[in-house]
Amino acid sequence: MAEHSKKLKETTAVVRETKNTAKTVKLRLGEAIGQTMKACGVEYFFYVSGGAFIPTYPLLEKAGINLVLCRNEKTATNMADGYARVTGKPTFCYGQHGAAAAILASMLYEPWYAHSPVIAINPTILPRDRWSYQEMHEMKFFDEVCKFNVEVTDPSRIAEYVRTAIQMAVSGCPGPTHINARLNIRGTELVEMPEIYGDKTFFRVPPFRPKAEIERIKEAAKLLAGAERPVMACGGGVHLSGAYEEVKKLAEMLSIPVVTNPPGKGCFPEDHPLYIGVSGTYGTMLANNTVGGADLVFFVGTRAGGHMTANLTVPEPGASKIIHLDIDPAALGRNYKPDVPLLGDVKVTLQELLDVLKTMAVKPKAKGQRLQEIAKAKKEYESIIGPMMDSDAVPIKPQRLMKEVSKILRPNDIVVSDTGQMMQWTCRMLRLKGTGITYLPCGGTLGSSFGLALGASFGAAKDQRVIHITGDGGMGYNIADLETAVRTKDQHAPFVCIVNDNACLAQVRPGHEDFSKKEAPCIKYTDFYPLDYAKIAEAFGCYGIRVERPEEIADAIEKAFDSGKPAIVDVVTDRREYAPAGMDRKGYPSLNIPPY
Predict the structure, then answer these.
(1) How many CA atoms lie within 13 A of 322 on its CB side?
(2) Is 338 exposed, middle or buried (0-12, 13-18, 19+ CB in 10 A)?
């Protein structure tokens, strides 16, 4: 017994000695946050100054983090999102406690929609529950829009949780995370904590590439080979995985037409004979008819949500075979029962699928007639929209605006679209020149596109250009951050904002219109006082130019880029020209809206 006790003491002593040899450091909390961010590959911190982090900014900068001061928390969050979408790198945004934190949370819908690795961080009031100024319980704000939401109360664990929030943001199906620092961040005292480290594996999306099971891949190959009228419906997961070549090879191998949802736009060459367009609520009738008439729909890197499927009518549930490939298990079988679910990274799973198809004894069916039908349908669609896009009418038609913007696009330009009418026009009529992350749409929060575009310009290469397309309604949300664009112009790629200026909220205007009147009446529920956004731009120190004739658009955009300043091109457009939405378009002729 005595011998046993002796051995136990010896063992305990060894354990204690081992534990005591673990490396620790003593840092101020701000130092720990900054050094962890740097060790984990973070480059940018978009913020609005204020709150307990005030002493921390110099410490973040000392750690090598680039700080970008914004004019409001919405823009800070949107800029972090835009940067993260373009680079795939984890990126931070910050607002102080209380209402500012609530604004951060509301804007995290955008990176949640885009699966963008944005980490929000804010302090909180100490001590709690004494009705301090701006005191709120912030954690609940973030529950619905974050895949990881943590309140840190132990100072020694702040680095651990910053690292974990970063790793969670980029892993699996990427998305926003949140850290609520219930700590004395202002404090200058040194805190002992484990040594600071990061893992290069998590420096960008995707850190890991899980592959679907080979048996399921073989099942998918058989279905694809035997399908008469297959279609690939691609989403933003193709961008996140970088699976451009694999999607193109599969489409060409099996002669499969390709549609995308708005986040997937740009993942397939838009001048390719097999590209059909964007499907769903904001998509074209051509794309929706193609999906609706398919005997097999292969969802690739998308949740197959209501927007892409026009509220689960394209395709009709049960009307076609379904293969669904996604890295998120929650997406598989949620809206459509898959005949073959494929859980894995898009790129490596498609690579395996291509290899299986090459070795199959059963060859894919010839689809010559199918391709002829697609070519004919595309030609008919172009004949419908062509006259609208060629219109010389004044005020300018937004369809013509889309044509003129398409003309000046370069292959590596990045286009950022606001939501509502602008996304409907850009999804349907904007023709991208390059494949890749060349189109960033909003997820539904009007006006967020400005910060999204400005953030994207920080992540873009210096030889890229960022073109932001918004309406005057959207432009009004974050116009103060024109100052941010000017102040930081030497830090980001060329940035031009094109305003579709119809002096109204066009998305909701049709329901109030009286088309019996020759002139468009003023509608108090939707219409604004006309503004000259070019002059507003100049007042902020930007370049501004106003366009009232369609033949002047392209030249004005080029002048804006040549100015060397952030710029606004204010294009005066017809407020009576509306884009159709949804599948119920038969009623639109009464509102003078064509069902394209």
Answers:
(1) 23
(2) buried
Other C-beta atoms closer than 10 Å to the C-beta of 511 total 10
Q: Is the pLDDT of residue 323 over 60?
A: yes
DSSP letter string over 40-72?
Answer: TT--EEEE---GGGGGGHHHHHHTTPEEEE-SS
Cis peptide before 207 (omega within 30 of 0): no
Q: Round to whole Å and give the CA distance between 288 and 281.
A: 9
- Tell me the pairing of strands 230-234 and 258-260: parallel
Q: Encoding tokens for residue 204?
A: 């960008």
3-state per-residue secondary structure call for 240-309: HHCCHHHHHHHHHHHCCCEEECHHHCCCCCCCCCCEEEECCCCCCHHHHHHHHCCCEEEEECCCCCCCCC
Using a cut of 0.85, tell me whether the model's pTM lies above it.
Answer: yes
| Segment (H or E) for 106 | helix 99-107
- Say if CB 181 and CB 123 are below 8 A apart: yes
Q: Are 573 and 401 in contact (CB under 8 A)?
A: yes
Give the E-state strand segments of 125-190 in sequence order: 148-152, 177-181
Rounded distance between C-alpha atoms, residue 482 and residue 485, angstroms: 5
- Domains in the chain, start-ordered, CATH in brackets? 19-202 (3.40.50.970), 214-372 (3.40.50.1220), 390-591 (3.40.50.970)
Beta-carbon contacts of 62 under 8 Å, excluding residues fewer than 6 positions away, are 31, 34
pLDDT (average), residues 348-352: 98
- Dist. CA 62–CA 31, nearest whole Å: 9
Q: How far apart are the first and last CA of the chain?
A: 88
* C-alpha gyration radius of the chain: 26
DSSP single-letter state for residue 145: T
Out of 10-14, 114-118, 156-160, 197-201, pick the least confident.
10-14
Q: How many CB atoms lie within 10 A of CB 25?
A: 15
Residue 404 tokens, joined: 């003129």
